[in-house]
Amino acid sequence: MGRGRQKAKHTKVARELKYFSPNTDYSALERELTGSQHDHYDDEASKWAEYEADDDTYVPDDGTHRAS
Q1: How far, in Å, CA of 21 to CA of 10, rounded?
Q2: Which Pfam families match (predicted)?
Q3: What residue numbers bound the domain in which 51 lies?
Q4: Which tens digits make up the pLDDT trace of 1-14?
Protein backbone atom coordinates (compact mmCIF):
# COMPACT_ATOMS: atom_id res chain seq x y z
CA MET A 1 0.00 0.00 0.00
CA GLY A 2 1.38 3.40 -0.93
CA ARG A 3 2.02 6.21 1.52
CA GLY A 4 -1.00 8.21 0.27
CA ARG A 5 -3.40 5.35 0.89
CA GLN A 6 -1.83 4.53 4.22
CA LYS A 7 -2.13 8.14 5.39
CA ALA A 8 -5.73 8.32 4.23
CA LYS A 9 -6.55 5.14 6.10
CA HIS A 10 -4.92 6.43 9.29
CA THR A 11 -6.80 9.72 8.93
CA LYS A 12 -10.08 7.85 8.54
CA VAL A 13 -9.43 5.72 11.62
CA ALA A 14 -8.37 8.76 13.66
CA ARG A 15 -11.51 10.64 12.64
CA GLU A 16 -13.72 7.67 13.57
CA LEU A 17 -12.07 7.46 17.00
CA LYS A 18 -12.32 11.21 17.56
CA TYR A 19 -16.05 11.39 16.92
CA PHE A 20 -16.97 8.00 18.39
CA SER A 21 -19.27 8.32 21.40
CA PRO A 22 -20.51 5.00 22.76
CA ASN A 23 -23.72 4.75 24.76
CA THR A 24 -22.82 4.86 28.43
CA ASP A 25 -24.76 2.79 30.94
CA TYR A 26 -24.78 5.25 33.83
CA SER A 27 -26.77 2.96 36.12
CA ALA A 28 -24.12 0.22 35.80
CA LEU A 29 -21.41 2.78 36.43
CA GLU A 30 -23.23 4.01 39.53
CA ARG A 31 -23.58 0.44 40.85
CA GLU A 32 -19.89 -0.15 40.33
CA LEU A 33 -18.84 3.08 42.02
CA THR A 34 -21.20 2.77 44.99
CA GLY A 35 -19.85 -0.70 45.76
CA SER A 36 -22.98 -2.80 45.66
CA GLN A 37 -20.83 -5.85 44.99
CA HIS A 38 -18.60 -5.71 48.07
CA ASP A 39 -19.62 -9.24 49.07
CA HIS A 40 -17.43 -10.70 46.33
CA TYR A 41 -14.43 -8.69 47.50
CA ASP A 42 -15.02 -9.61 51.14
CA ASP A 43 -14.95 -13.29 50.19
CA GLU A 44 -11.63 -12.78 48.40
CA ALA A 45 -10.20 -10.85 51.34
CA SER A 46 -11.15 -13.58 53.79
CA LYS A 47 -9.00 -16.05 51.85
CA TRP A 48 -5.94 -13.90 52.61
CA ALA A 49 -6.80 -12.95 56.21
CA GLU A 50 -4.16 -15.26 57.68
CA TYR A 51 -1.43 -13.32 55.87
CA GLU A 52 -2.75 -9.96 57.03
CA ALA A 53 -1.74 -10.72 60.62
CA ASP A 54 1.83 -11.34 59.42
CA ASP A 55 2.03 -7.81 57.99
CA ASP A 56 1.93 -6.23 61.45
CA THR A 57 4.92 -8.18 62.71
CA TYR A 58 7.06 -7.91 59.57
CA VAL A 59 10.31 -5.98 59.99
CA PRO A 60 12.40 -5.42 56.85
CA ASP A 61 16.09 -6.27 57.04
CA ASP A 62 17.23 -3.17 55.17
CA GLY A 63 17.24 -0.98 58.29
CA THR A 64 14.41 1.33 57.19
CA HIS A 65 12.08 0.22 59.99
CA ARG A 66 12.47 2.00 63.29
CA ALA A 67 11.08 0.62 66.52
CA SER A 68 8.84 3.07 68.37
Answers
A1: 19
A2: DUF3073
A3: 32-56
A4: 578 999 999 999 99
